[in-house]
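Sequence in, structure out.
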Amino acid sequence: MSTPRQSPWVQLRTTGPHPLYFRKMVGDASRDARPGEVVTVYDKEGRLYGRGHFNDQSPIAVRMLTYGDAPVDDAFWRQRVGEAVRLRRETLRLDDQTDAYRLIHAEGDRLSGVVVERYADRLVFELFSLGMQQEQERVVGLLREHLGPPPTRPESAARPDAAARGPADWSVHTRVDDLVAEREGIRLLAPPRPIDAKSADARPAARQAGENSVIIREHGIRYRVDFVGGHKTGFFCDQRDHRRRLAEFTRGKTLLDLCCYTGGFSLNARLRGEASDVVAVDLDEKALAIAKENANLNQTRINFVHSDAFIYLRQMIENNRRFGVVVLDPPKFARSREELDKALIKYNDLNTLALQVVEPGGVLLTCSCSGLVSPTDFAEAIRRAARRAGRAVQVLQQGGAAGDHPVALECPESEYLKAFWLRVV
């Protein structure tokens, strides 16, 4: 005799180690299983499997949160959020290096459907599921509790109305990708982006009144982060360790920073790495404007160029211009499996060009942030590029995202960032 099921429930056609289950993997669901709710999950034999967020309107119908009979209750949320904060503050001790880091990394922190970045005294949410939107208020409260009050920013303390505003608190901002909002049924609480907004990734879904940007620090360098109009959540915390390491290779060298965004690699090469000359290239005029402001914030000079990376590299090859160090950190080329083959061709073509502008004995840092591109496939694209470019390369190191972007072994896509340090001979 079977055990009565705990409603609301869903039954899966198949189970495995992966925490995400698509609609075709769901066999049946109780009538009271509503989008965004936590449901009890059963395997195809009717055995209790765990609990997760359900949304039959989304391509991802079930996002697992717990396994076995563990409940998703107040204690669950307190434990998961607390673990996430302790990893960043106690294990990684990120507050000693920066006031900008990822606080929650979706599946990497066993909280599928949400990413939270900390930028100075701001908490920026990026939502990927209706279930996490409905839990956001709870998560905000727990983050505020575990983090305590934020340090007062110098620019805030200097304002005449600082005392009237009372003690400092975390300001919360939310972003949702347009396609995610449509698929998940997330209702946006703010008007669409202005027509001239450059970011194609996400738009603000809800935010408290206040500034749309903030100044953060990382390894002694200051950056302005536009968390409303910028790409993703406004700053790439995942490249923190690579920005720091770049300085080891740039003393007295010329640097070409391709797809420079707001200038993170360029500033580290110039300020910490004592590069003799830095050229930073990007096609996004808005990102370049912030990059120029960041150079001014740090009182340094960088040669910023508004250009497509492919076009600029072909010009440099034609002019026989070479650089001691080249950084290639392009945007995501594969957003779906249908785009994977074209993405690998793009990575191959771009690296073929980049290898031709590296001085003999110079260094190329080449990256891919496409989660669907495996490290093996990316390495193969680089190998073919080296052969096409007629350059021999030595792999000095392979890297990934910084430690505040932990990887879930059962979710290979969470290891999305690949970085190869190459010596070109």
